[in-house]
Amino acid sequence: MLALGLLASSGLAQAHNVSELAKQRMLDGDYLDFAMVGAEHMLTGYDHLLFLLGVLFFLKSFIDIVKFITAFTLGHTLVLIFATKAGVGANPYLIDAVIALTVIYKAFENLDGFRRWFKFNAPSLLLMVFLFGLIHGFGLSTRLQQMTLAKDPMLVSKVIAFNVGVELGQIAALTVMAAVIRLWRETSAWPLVSRVANTALICAGAVLFVQQLQGYAGTREPAIERSKVSIDSAGEKL
């Protein structure tokens, strides 16, 4: 199971870290470099892959897969382009924590959790996938803004090249996931596999969520320490 493998990974919280090599390629490279970094970013973005796995789980027809993945792609593409262009960002750990919650949500829905636990049907899946695409796109934008110069005159076209790479990476990942799920579905163990896999997705999402909050707390500690130093210095002067 992909989710179980991720749970055993010690570098789970660093799934979206931007390497210095990637930053340099974005600063000095051409459109092909941007596309390659985009594909690499998607294929190493465990939270995005886990969410896509959850979305694919009970989609049987090719038309349904295209419809839902198009909604997700449209959402994250719109935010990726416009948020990056406008320079709108947030603490990446908080964004990734919210993305982890989308993984938990989708797996919980796959287990029919809304009807079983809360006695009502889940909201429109197509709408939720689009909204979650917006959140995932904001996460991509936040990371992309760490890789490139905000005042780059070719920023928009480079963001589009980056997004093309993201989509190519997404297609590659979806192809493998769809093939594996199809093999699972044809076995008599499918009901058990689906329960175990989606439970593992919830666990993986929970681990991601906690680790991202820990990462956020780590970014806050230096600021708190600086504040204490300032207060102590002011007290000494008085």
Automatic annotation (TrEMBL):
Signal sequence segment? 1-15
UniProt keyword annotation of Transmembrane present: yes
Membrane-crossing residue ranges in chain numbering: 120-140, 160-184, 196-213
Q: Which UniProt keywords apply?
A: Membrane, Signal, Transmembrane, Transmembrane helix
Statement: the UniProt record of this protein carries the keyword Signal: yes
Source superkingdom: Bacteria
Q: Which Pfam families match?
A: HupE_UreJ_2 (PF13795)
Protein name, per record = HupE/UreJ protein
Instruction: Name its species.
Output: Hydrocarboniphaga effusa AP103
